[in-house]
Amino acid sequence: MIYYFSGTGNSRWVAERLAEAAEDRLCDMAACLRGQRIPPAVSETETAGFVFPIHGWYAPERVRAFLSAWRMPHANYRYAVCTCGDDVGKGMSRLSKHFPLDAAWSVTMPNTYIPMFSLDSDALCRQKIAEARTRIAGIARSVQRHERVWDVHEGSVPWLKTYIANPLFVRFVIRSKGFHVEEGCTGCGVCVHSCPVGNIRLEDDRPVWNSHCIHCMACVHGCPQKAIQYGKTTQRKGRYRLKDYL
Ligand SMILES: Cc1cc2nc3c(=O)[nH]c(=O)nc-3n(C[C@H](O)[C@H](O)[C@H](O)COP(=O)(O)O)c2cc1C
After folding, report:
1. How far apart (Å, rounded) are the C-alpha atoms in residues 81 and 95?
2. Which residue ranges does the chain devote to CATH 3.40.50.360?
3. Which atom of ligand 1 lies closest to the CA of 54?
4. CB-based contacts of 80: which residues, under 8 Å, 6+ apart?
5. Which residue has its alpha carbon closest to ligand 1 atom 18?
6. Ligand 1 within 6 A of 112 CB?
7. Is 216's C-beta closer than 6 angstroms to any atom of ligand 1?
8. Helices then strands (H, E): number in the chain?
9. What is the DSSP letter of 211?
10. Distance, CA 44 to ligand 1 centroid (Å)?
11. Which atom of ligand 1 is nearest to the CA of 161?
């Protein structure tokens, strides 16, 4: 079983490619969390994989909540794959302290965090995705052999990023305040359905953000009218759609 969490689709795509290559089944963590459904069980002979994005050099809180609630200690091989734009810091090793893993990988994908950074160029997006395809095939082979691998791109000053910058990022940056919609909004509701944590509702045909946003930017990138903005920073930035590169 491969459990995945995804905002803008990168991690879902990686999970789907892995499931295809390793002939495994998929389960959406967000759907389990939203519906308070118990995740499908894995047997003692099965492997359990977890695929998710890195947010601020650590696993998003929802992913950690899912893993803490995951009560299937008998899976005989547990691995994690995180997707990132650049680097993971100590995020994966910090996670493995609470949730032991037999193997871990990072897969570099196009960056989606436009409040702070610019989108990758088209050429870089294509290059990252092409390299990811090869990497995923290698990960699937290792998973099928139950190899104990630790291949995570931590980047520079990883400890500082995960243990100092992450708590500051979560405390001061991740919040719903700042999202707003411009005139072009048609009230189509794509944002409501694209939010993995069910944080958006429509009121008078306009999106309203509740207070448990995780800043995944799915609403901003997914809006067909490009009408959703975060503060003033996203107005000048492009939008990322994985399907444009596949
Ligand atoms: C809130 C947020 C924080 C992020 N932090 C990092 C980071 O610390 N390091 C990094 O390399 N990429 C970072 N990224 C980029 C994502 O990890 C990357 O684009 C990922 O593939 C997105 O996956 P998704 O499409 O499944 O949501 C961040 C993205 C978001 C939305």
Report:
1. 12
2. 2-170
3. 17
4. 49, 50, 51, 52, 92, 95, 96, 101, 103, 104, 105
5. 84
6. yes
7. yes
8. 9, 10
9. S
10. 32
11. 8
- Cα 46 to middle of ligand 1, angstroms: 29
The residues of the chain that CATH labels 3.30.70.20 are 179-245
> Is 53 near ligand 1, meaning CB less than 6 Å away?
yes
In CATH, the number for domain 2-170 is 3.40.50.360
**Is the Cβ–Cβ distance between 162 and 91 less than 8 Å?**
yes
pTM: predicted TM-score of the whole model, two decimal places:
0.96
Class of domain 179-245: alpha beta
Please give the span between the terminal C-alpha atoms of the chain, in angstroms, as a whole number. Answer: 25
Give average pLDDT by consecutive 10-residue segment, the chain, 246 residues. 96 98 92 77 78 98 89 79 98 95 97 96 98 98 96 98 97 93 96 96 96 97 97 94 96
Give the number of the atom of ligand 1 that is nearest the alpha carbon of residue 110.
Answer: 19
